[in-house]
């Protein structure tokens, strides 16, 4: 089985972003800036946010951190977002999800200037994606496509099963795979899907984004399938994905590990998106030129 290594692929993407920023920032007067907002004290979110800030530093993006108490209140959070929308040092705004209870996620995401929405979660960007227009794309699915491209997979006409329909991952990923640039045949599955096992057994590629530890087992896959594990679960015996990695290893053609897989791609794609937003803000590219 081929191990699809997020570690080396994400390094390649980061190196590309770093190089491009270095080459362009002498011509323009400032480096890219990313505002990272974390509301509340969720320990997993704290780890992710720290990783994101570290990665920014590595490639020459300035990060601005906002750690807010869980009871900040909707109004105050939106006020901060508006200030960041107007702040010329800030090219990207990342609002870490999930938000604590009592905050309206959609209202907060909609307050973000779509040109600074480096998570691709604003309705304008999700809408553009649905129409097949260039947009800032959600980091996890976009990073997943970068990894597939790196390993030279051609998905045209292939059977792709996407497990999970979140706005952050499953839904946008299915749209991207289905798009005219990829031309995959996509089946979206979820908790109410019948005959899931039979559907998965037809798949050339399975994308897992349901957050259920070791859910995908060998009886659910055909031989030589490619497994992209986007799940990240904290269990008693450490981090694990949605695939039963050990059990599948002998049967499938290729698989991403957890950790060391798609999570790392997500962060690298965030850097790429921030650079894109910066290039747009500096007038170097138009919307149609987004990657
Ligand atoms: N607005 C928003 N945007 C996101 O992109 C977003 C979010 N909210 N909320 C939570 C999820 C989760 N996510 C991950 C990012 C990095 C790793 C990552 O770095 N993973 C490493 C190790 C992580 C570890 O050690 O815990 C790995 O898989 O090797 C994982 C998961 C981004 N998310």
UniProtKB/TrEMBL annotation:
Transmembrane segments: none
UniProt binding sites for NADP(+): 164-166, 232
EC number: 1.5.1.5, 3.5.4.9
Catalytic activity entry: (6R)-5,10-methenyltetrahydrofolate + H2O = (6R)-10-formyltetrahydrofolate + H(+); (6R)-5,10-methylene-5,6,7,8-tetrahydrofolate + NADP(+) = (6R)-5,10-methenyltetrahydrofolate + NADPH
Top-level lineage group: Bacteria
Protein family membership: Belongs to the tetrahydrofolate dehydrogenase/cyclohydrolase family.
Function: Catalyzes the oxidation of 5,10-methylenetetrahydrofolate to 5,10-methenyltetrahydrofolate and then the hydrolysis of 5,10-methenyltetrahydrofolate to 10-formyltetrahydrofolate.
The protein's name: Bifunctional protein FolD
Lineage: Bacteria, Pseudomonadati, Thermodesulfobacteriota, Desulfovibrionia, Desulfovibrionales
The gene coding this protein: folD
């Amino acid at each position: 089985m081929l191990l699809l290594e997020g570690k080396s692929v994400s390094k390649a993407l980061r190196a590309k972003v770093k190089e491009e920023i270095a080459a362009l920032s002498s011509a323009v007067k400032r480096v890219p800036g990313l505002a990272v907002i974390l509301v509340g004290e969720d320990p997993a979110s704290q780890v992710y946010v720290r990783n994101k800030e570290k990665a920014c530093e590595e490639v020459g993006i300035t990060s601005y951190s906002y750690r807010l108490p869980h009871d900040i209140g909707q109004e105050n959070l939106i006020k901060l977002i508006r200030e960041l929308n107007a702040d010329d040092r800030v090219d990207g705004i990342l609002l870490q999800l999930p938000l604590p209870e009592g905050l309206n996620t959609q209202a907060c995401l909609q307050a973000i200037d779509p040109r600074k929405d480096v998570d691709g979660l604003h309705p304008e960007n999700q809408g553009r994606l649905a129409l097949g227009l260039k947009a800032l794309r959600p980091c996890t699915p976009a990073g997943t496509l970068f990894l597939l491209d790196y390993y030279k997979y051609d998905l045209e006409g292939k059977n792709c099963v996407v497990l999970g329909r979140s706005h952050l991952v499953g839904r946008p990923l299915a749209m991207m795979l289905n798009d005219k640039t990829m031309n995959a045949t996509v089946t979206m599955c979820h908790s109410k899907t019948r005959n899931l096992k039979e559907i998965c057994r037809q798949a050339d590629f399975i994308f897992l984004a349901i957050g259920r530890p070791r859910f995908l087992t060998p009886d659910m896959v055909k031989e030589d399938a490619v497994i992209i594990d986007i799940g990240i679960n904290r269990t008693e015996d450490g981090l694990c994905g949605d695939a039963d990695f050990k059990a599948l290893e002998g049967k499938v053609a290729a698989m991403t590990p957890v950790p060391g897989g798609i999570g790392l791609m997500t962060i690298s794609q965030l850097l790429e998106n921030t650079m894109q937003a910066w290039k747009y803000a500096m007038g170097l590219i138009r919307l149609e030129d987004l990657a």
